[in-house]
Design goal:
This protein is an alpha/beta fold and about 325 residues long. It contains 13 helices and 10 strands. The protein folds into 2 domains: about 230 residues, Rossmann fold (3-Layer(aba) Sandwich); about 80 residues, Uridine Diphospho-n-acetylenolpyruvylglucosamine Reductase, domain 3.
């Protein structure tokens, strides 16, 4: 057996074991795969196809055309043709061109939410509860380093990309997090994918870390830099899981009823919590209910509102109202 075939079988077997161990609820189910046509997502699609019979998992493909490049239709055609050739159910959607001309809010945050919205629209149409994205170990390392060096971060930020994320009715999973890009490249030897030409541009912050910062650290400090950062991220996520259980109890205790999105507090109780605790608790609530949280500046603005005299404020999906002796948090649908 050739070296390439050995790596191919090894990656496939590791993926099979990883899915059985970490995502047993997927066995025998259908799952929506977010497939761009690039190396990472095509590797994920191939792995699900190669383990389909043993795992009894049926992949359904979703491709989102971002309309950021004049040739982005090429990627959609590639994914669509591949799915037709391999008898895989597929669904194509796109972000409207005028979306990118809107000025309100942070563009990256809005684009992420729009991707979520479109993926969940497809999942709802297909009656699927689980959505898989192709983030791998190198993405994890880049994410953690960017959080540390760009703006500073805490325990939650060190956890990086979550292996599994509940967002409303949908569960997002990242089945490739244990695998490096080099492993995926080796696995994809001889298989086609499409390369986004912007991936090589260091004008994009993530690409700068990928092509310059991390290679420099590996050369100047240690070739194991990536592994050490990934290990730190794993440890942080373990601690975060413990904190999440405590914060779930905190919010559930204050929920008006299981059927409503309202959380009710005595004003005196809120006044007794530190600003940092409220920041962490709010971030957890938003991640739990909406799958994302606000930036630190917005969260601090909310704390400022709670300490101030104003009686009502709305931030996207979160509305807070103050009454004489109560404060009510409501998490809605947002944009």
């Amino acid at each position: 057996m050739s070296n390439t075939n050995c790596h191919h079988e090894s990656t496939k077997n590791c993926f099979f074991s990883h899915i059985k161990k970490r995502f047993p609820f997927l066995l025998g189910q259908r799952i929506l795969l977010a497939v761009s046509g690039g190396l990472d997502s095509m590797a994920m699609l191939h792995l699900f196809l190669e383990t389909r019979e043993k795992l009894k998992i049926t992949p359904v493909v979703a491709h989102i055309n971002h309309n950021l490049r004049t040739d982005s239709g090429r990627d959609a055609h590639f994914v669509d043709n591949f799915c037709q050739e391999h008898d895989v159910e597929s669904h194509l959607s796109e972000i409207a061109i005028d979306f990118w001309t809107q000025k309100k809010g942070n563009v990256e945050d809005r684009a992420r939410r729009e991707r979520y919205r479109l993926l969940e629209k497809i999942a709802r149409k297909c009656r699927l509860a689980s959505i898989a994205t192709a983030h791998h170990r190198d993405d994890q390392v880049e994410t953690v380093l960017m959080r540390i060096l760009d703006r500073g971060t805490g325990l939650q930020g060190l956890g990086g990309i979550a292996e599994m994320l509940e967002r409303g009715k949908y569960r997002y999973i990242r089945p490739l997090l244990p695998f490096s890009r080099k492993q995926l490249e080796c696995y994809m030897t001889g298989r086609p994918w499409v390369e986004d030409p912007t991936n090589g541009s260091t004008d994009i912050r993530r690409n700068l870390f990928r092509h310059e910062v991390i290679p420099y650290l590996e050369k100047a400090v240690s070739l194991e830099v990536g592994g050490h950062i990934a290990q730190l991220s794993d440890t942080a996520r373990d601690y975060n899981e413990v904190l999440a259980v405590a914060l779930d109890h905190f919010w559930d205790f204050h929920r008006h009823s299981p059927q409503t999105p309202d959380y009710i507090f005595d004003k005196k109780e809120l006044a007794g919590y530190t600003d940092d605790f409220i920041l962490s608790a709010l971030a957890h609530l938003l991640r739990r209910e909406r799958g994302y949280t606000f930036g630190s500046r917005t969260l601090r603005d909310i704390v400022g509102f709670l300490r101030g005299a104003s009686t009502e404020v709305a931030y996207d999906c979160l509305t807070i109202r103050k009454y004489r002796d109560k404060t009510v948090f409501r998490v809605g649908a947002g944009e």
